[in-house]
Amino acid sequence: MKLAIELGAVSPPRHLSSPGEQPGNLDLMTEWVQHAERLGVSIAFSAEAWWSDAVTPLAYLADKTHRIKLATGIMQTSARTPAMTAMTALTLHDLTGGRFALGLGASGPQVVEGLHGVAYTTPLARLRETVEICRMIFAGEKVRYQGKVFQLPLPGGEGKAIRVAHEPVEIPIYLATLGPQSLRYTGSSADGWLGTSFSPDHPDAHLSFIREGARKAGREASDLDLCVSVRVEIGDDVEGIIRSRKKGVAFNMGGMGSATTNFYNDAFRRAGYEEDARAIQSLWLEGKRDEATRRVPDAMVTEFQAVGTREMVEERLRRYRDSGVTTLKLGLDSAPLGPERFELLENIVDLTKGLS
Description:
With 356 residues, this protein is an alpha/beta fold.
C-alpha cells in the first residue's frame, strides 16, 4: 500500500510577507514535500476549495522535487473549461517531467454556485465530458465534441476544431466521487479514485459501486489506484483524541453541503449511520453546532479514521490495506506543519512497512 500526503492553503514565504504579517507556509510546505519524497511517499496532492488554487503550488514544487508524483486533489470542473484543464495538465506534465496526475471533482453546489456562479445541475455530465475532452486533447486529437454540457466548436459561431500544440501524452486521471452514479462512472473510466468518508469496516458503501462500474466496462477495480483519505493521529489519550475529532465529523455531516445535497452525509448513511447522520446534520443546520458535535458517536470517528495508540493505528492501516485500498492519502492535521508533522509521517511510514 502506497502513501500520499495532502497540501493545504499556501501563503507567502517569510521574505515576501508584509510588515506585521504572519510569515507564510510556502517554505515549510516545500520542506514537507521534500521530506515525504525522501521517505518514499508516492504522491503529493494539492487541494482547492475556497483558498489557494490546486495548480500553482504544484508548478512551484515541480522544480523542488525529483521523484514524488504531484497531483491536483482536486481541480474543480466548474472552475475551468475542459480545454483549459487539459492545457494546464499538459503544462504540469512538462514541468514535472511526467510526474503529474490530474485529479478532478465536481465539488458541491454551495461552492460551485456560490463562488463560481455555475449552475450545479448536471455535475456528473460535466465531469464525464471534462474527462473525455481532456483525453481527446492528451491524445493529440482535434477537439470536436458534442455533449450535454459542452459543444466544441460552439455551434452557430465562428469557432473551428483546434488541436492543442502538444505531442500526445498519457496523464493519469483521478476522480473524487462519492455518489453511487459517480462511483460507477469512476469504476468504468478513471485511472484512480480519490475517496473520502470511507471506512474499511464498510468498504461496500463505496467500492461496490466502483466494482459495478468497472465490471460493466470490462475492467476490474484493481485497474484503478484506489486512493482514500484518512485522518491519522497517534497518542495514548484515545478518548481525548476521539472527542477532539467529533467537531470535524459534525462539520462534514452538516456543513459540507446544503440541506438537500451533502455527499459526505450520504456516504455515512450508506455505511449504516442513517439516523446519526441525519440527526447531526439537522442540529448543525439549526446552528446548534456544539450539540451536533456531541451527537457524533465514537464509531463515526474510529471507523472512518486511524486514531489511537501506535498499535491501534497500525491495525487500522492494516484494515485499510485489506479492504482493497492501494494508496492512503494521509490527513495529518493533528500535528502542525513542521517537525511534529514530519515525525508523524515518519512513524506512519514505519508502521506501513511493518504491516504483515
